[in-house]
Amino acid sequence: MILAGIDEAGYGPLLGPLVVAVNAFRTEASVGVPVAPGRRWPVVPLADCGSLKVSDSKKAYSRAKGLGSLERTVLGFAMHKAGCPSDTGEFLSRWSIEGREEALSLPWYGWQGLGLPVVVSPGEIATSALEVSRALERGGIEYLGAALCVVDAVRYNAIVERIGNKATLLFGRTLILMHKLWREYGAEGVYLTVDRLGGRKRYGGFLDIAFPKAAIKVLWETPRESAYVLVGAGSEMFVRFVVGGEQADPAVALSSMWAKYTRELFMELFNGYWLSRAEGVKSTAGYWVDAQRFVGELVAAQAVTEAEAAQFMMTR
Question: If you average pLDDT over residues 258-274, what whole number do you get?
Fold first, then answer.
């Protein structure tokens, strides 16, 4: 049985990419079918990771706290699975399944690579990987890895203009990751939790379109949670869309951390590129008010024109 979670980072800011991540685990434990709201949905047993934190990225990261906590956790899991990547290029090559090449073709992301880890020592990452191994052993689970979808501002603006809204863009990235789970693990059976954004409560129609060869059954649709089962061609996936998914399932929290860490790597590259061209400008996290300040200072420093800046700003 496969247990997985999906979450995003960058849905609201003006600058920097949108990143959507999935993390998946295998368990041999027997799992009953959830048939009603409130019945326990199977989640990843990652409550005890020693000093390693698996939590909502909003709790693990702030500009004041720095990147350390995110980096220890994300690269600890990465190292456990396949060794610690040496730089951002290797990190993205290994884990990104959509948008990497397009993002790195942009000068403000592709101008150089960042060596990894960025802020903590390789020894700390090795220690984190050992803690991951112990936590997985205690939980009786196997870590299968992560996958990322990256949407830079140029692609984001083009897609939103074409389809009309950013919620559908975000759900499209979720479907890409769902298809990966379905294709690789559907025969084993998948339980997936997705952090829900916005007010949508019904997803059955979208799932029918996205999985035309699967039979879609609604399990429940409530104000806080909507759940479905997809069955077809020897594969089965249970999926729920939950408000506050990071608190509901550690796999979602871990995906939140992967998405946020990846976004922050892109922001390091973005800030480095523009600050090297505009002396005295302070870096930005990309959120609206500060992003507008940042762009205004770049324009005033003649590092970029307003028309050129529009290329790396989200339109809505």
Answer: 97
Q: What is the pTM of this model?
A: 0.96
For residue 17, whether the previous peptide bond is cis, meaning omega lies within 30 degrees of 0, is no
End-to-end CA, the chain: 39
In DSSP terms, which residues pair with 167 in a beta bridge? none
Q: Among 41, 8, 43, which Cα is nearest to 24's?
A: 43
Distance CA 196, CA 13 (A): 18
User: Could you tell me the pLDDT band of residue 142, with boundaries at 50, 70 and 90?
Assistant: very high
Query: Whole-angstrom Cα distance, residue 305 to residue 300?
Result: 9
Do residues 252 and 56 make contact, with C-beta atoms less than 8 angstroms apart? no
Q: What's the average model confidence in pLDDT over 239-256?
A: 94
Interacting residues of 137 by C-beta distance below 8 A, sequence separation 6+: none
Please tell me the distance from the alpha carbon of residue 161 to that of residue 200, in angstroms, as a whole number.
21
DSSP, residue by residue, 162-200 = HHS-HHHHHHHHHHHHHHHHHHHHGGG-EEEEEE--SS-
How far is it, in rounded angstroms, from Cα 9 to Cα 269?
A: 17
Residue 52 is given by DSSP the state -
Give the model's pLDDT for residue 38. 67
Confirm if 50 and 247 have CB atoms less than 8 A apart.
no
CB 88 within 8 A of CB 269: yes
- Report the mean per-residue pLDDT for the chain: 93
Location of structure tokens 């409130």: 38
The H-or-E segment that residue 241 falls in is strand 235-242
Residues 25-49: tens digit of each pLDDT: 999 887 777 777 767 899 998 866 7
CB-CB contact of 104 with 89 (8 Å) = yes
Q: Is 280 left (phi over 0), alpha (psi -120 to 50) or beta?
A: left
